[in-house]
Amino acid sequence: MAQIIDGKVIAGRIKDELKGRVADYKAAGVEITLAVIQVGCDPASSVYVNNKKKACEYIGIKSLAYELGDETTQEELLKIICDLNNRDDVNGILVQLPVPKHIDEDLVIKSINPKKDVDGFHPESVGALCIGQPGFVSCTPAGIIQLLKRSNVDIEGKECVVIGRSNIVGKPMALLLLRENGTVTIAHSRTKNLKEVAKRADILVAAIGKPKFINKEYVKDGAVIIDVGIHRMENGKLCGDVDFDDVIDTVSAITPVPGGVGPMTIAMLMNNCVESVEIQRSK
Ligand code: NAD
Fold first, then answer.
1. 224-256 b/e with 16+ CB inside 10 Å = b?
2. Ligand 1: which of 146, 147, 169, 194 to mutate, judged by most atoms within 8 Å of the beta carbon?
3. d(CA 268, CA 142)
4. Distances from the Cα of 32 to the Cαs of 18, 198, 271, in angstroms?
5. Which residues form the Tetrahydrofolate dehydrogenase/cyclohydrolase NAD(P)-binding domain (predicted)?
6. Which of 46, 113, 178, 242 could be a cystine partner for 85, CB 3.0 to 4.6 Å?
């Protein structure tokens, strides 16, 4: 019987642990503040931003909301980020992506003070991860490491295959698995013999962005599967990059969609906000 890795339960535990740490900081006179900036009114982004605000409220982190119109210029956005960078009372700055097309996303990411980069997307944060120094780590892959550790899945020495090489999931995921002493392969859209490569995996992370792409032909007997994809099907239900029903009898453990990786992303954002206090003190 495969173990279903319950991201909702694990994320709930992490949030409760963080709530305790935030209360300790408060008792010591330290309030943690996250600034969340949304440009435009993309409905999916509004849902994510709202969920982040709710998580902040639950944990006891103060959130500052900047809801900017579609017509906001790049200069106006950069000015707001610059002001927040300079405010001692703001610990974390998050710009909800994507931003409208007339704004240069890379420039926006680079303009955030790396000490307040709670999304972990700044080149300095990515570089620190790459060379094994402390810094903010992208929330979704950081959450996946927590899912594995808290489900007693050993990473050390294991064959880990990450399918997908995006900057926010695939690449940091591979670096984190390497940091945990996994033997890591990154596969992507140009990989030859993907089924063979994927079948080597003891731990297979699917971050492809294609619904139900991974079936049992890609999966070794007893593998642990982490499904990062989120897709809304025609019947309104959510599914992942993995064909759950097809692989369930082959795997030893798997994350469901919904309720697997998804809830961990916000929990790890909250973790980064709490960690920001020490990161800001230490540098
Ligand atoms: P992306 O589109 O930036 O990257 C997809 C990657 O998949 C690319 O690197 C590409 O090389 C690879 N790929 C595409 N087609 C392939 C193929 N046929 N064979 C092998 N590799 C292929 O996507 P992303 O931002 O990394 O997100 C991936 C998925 O995860 C999406 O469904 C996204 O919605 C989801 N996601 C979920 C969370 C969460 O919190 N659960 C967070 C981020 C992304």
1. bbbbbbbeeeeeeeebbbbbbeebbebbebbbb
2. 169
3. 7
4. 12, 42, 11
5. 138-280
6. 113
Instruction: Say if ligand 1 is within 6 A of residue 194 CB.
Output: yes
Question: The pTM is what?
Answer: 0.97
Using alpha carbons, select from 170, 172, 202 the residue that is nearest to residue 188.
170
Can you list the residues of the chain whose pLDDT is less than 70? 283
All structural domains of the chain: 29-114 (3.40.50.10860), 139-261 (3.40.50.720)
Query: What is the best residue among 145, 165, 167, 189 to mutate for testing ligand 1's pocket, by most ligand atoms within 8 Å of CB?
Result: 189
φ and ψ at residue 243, rounded to 5 degrees: -80, 90
Residue 101, classified by CB atoms within 10 Å of its CB into exposed (0-12), middle (13-18) or buried (19+), is exposed
